[in-house]
Amino acid sequence: MTSTYYRKGFGLKAVIEGQLTSDYSSAVVDALRAGGYELRAGELRFRLAREFGFCYGVDRAVEYAYETRTKFPGKRVFLVGEIIHNPHVNAKLAAMGIIELGQGPDGRFDLSMLTAEDVVILPAFGVTVADFERLRALGSVLVDTTCGSVLNVWKRVESYARDGFTALIHGKYYHEETRATASQVTKHAGGRFLVVLNMDEARLVCDFIEGSGDAAQLAAHFSAAMSPGFDFTRDLERIGVANQTTMLSGESLAIAHEIRKSFVRRHGEDTVAAHFRTFDTICSATQERQDAVIQLLENPMDLMIVVGGYNSSNTTHLAALCRDRGVTAYHIEDASAVDIETGMLRHQPRVKAPEATVSGWLDNVHTIGITAGASTPNNKIGETILRICAVAGVEPELPPPA
Fold it and tell me: How is the cofactor bound (predicted)?
């Protein structure tokens, strides 16, 4: 750690702990945990996934942001984009005077207002190599909250580029984390990346590896999801697979398996190691939250409520997991999506879809599953449950205050 770059916080946890508890804790969530992750409210029964909400990386990022504001009370403090994908948390930071830097049409952050006297927080997703270099050149104090799981993927992608392998990344090319991860290939001359969203896109790559497919068509399809100058004939000869840490782990593993099979078909089993590498880089918190939802759905559920930002990748995947298992699932951004006055529910039906409103969603419902993305604070989970109870006209069976 230097005087202008910090990655380990400022030792102020005891100072900010009370504020963090006040801003994000929930007596309702505490009661659910104490009651074996179940809570009754009249005829309703709420069942909470055993892994939910803030993960370690998010906890750390939010804590460092609060510490930063405390450490530098007289300085301007900026944040490169959103600290995490949760509107409530980002609004809290804004209320503390932390200024969010926006992106231009080219995806680069506008740093024009920064000076060497300012403090800049890097988000949990990290920033691109180019943006990091621009920030260091300005001389501002940098507080880096990049998640350790993301850093592990960066090391893997950089190693692929160093060894002459194209980094094939399972992720969303527009997501901050994937953009930062893909940029790691620029640390080595000739580094290349290609981002695939799902198995359908991965199969296009597999077909080309096996000798079919059209390079021009692929270039058009992946125009926004590949490194400049990408040559499908040259750059798919050697591939290393990585992933955005919040993707569905099963799909990431399946994509890697299919890519490997294509290389075996093209070059034979004996030489596949010269053409293909893979490592499971799904973060443990993402995996645990997905596993907890699957476990929760082993018992009958009338519906699932998934709480978290609409632009939160891990949250959208939790909702998809529920729907894939035939369970009615509503992905809501915040507790306010449950309208107590009208009984209506606002939700996102699928990724990037316009928000929709539904009525009668509690009709004949008795058991409600609850989970939340890794960037959702406990108080928003608790508020959601209380608002559902209000719509249903029931009172949660909470222990008396201590």
Answer: Binds 1 [4Fe-4S] cluster per subunit.
Q: Given pLDDT bands bounded at 50, 70 and 90, which one contains residue 1?
A: very low
Q: Is 296 exposed, middle or buried (0-12, 13-18, 19+ CB in 10 A)?
A: buried
Q: Rounded to whole angstroms, how far apart are CA atoms 332 and 371?
A: 11
The answer to whether 57-146 and 149-278 have equal CATH topology is: no
Residue positions forming the annotated binding site? 55, 85, 147, 175, 245, 283, 312-314, 375
Percentage above 90 pLDDT, the chain: 88
| Fold (topology level) of 149-278 | Cobalt-precorrin-4 Transmethylase; domain 1 (3.40.1010)
Instruction: Please state the domain extents for the chain.
Output: 24-55+284-392, 57-146, 149-278
17 carries an active-site annotation = no
Q: Does the predicted model carry a pTM greater than 0.70?
A: yes
Strands annotated E in 103-188: 119-122, 141-144, 166-170
Whether residue 182 contacts residue 150, with contact meaning beta carbons closer than 8 Å, is answered with no
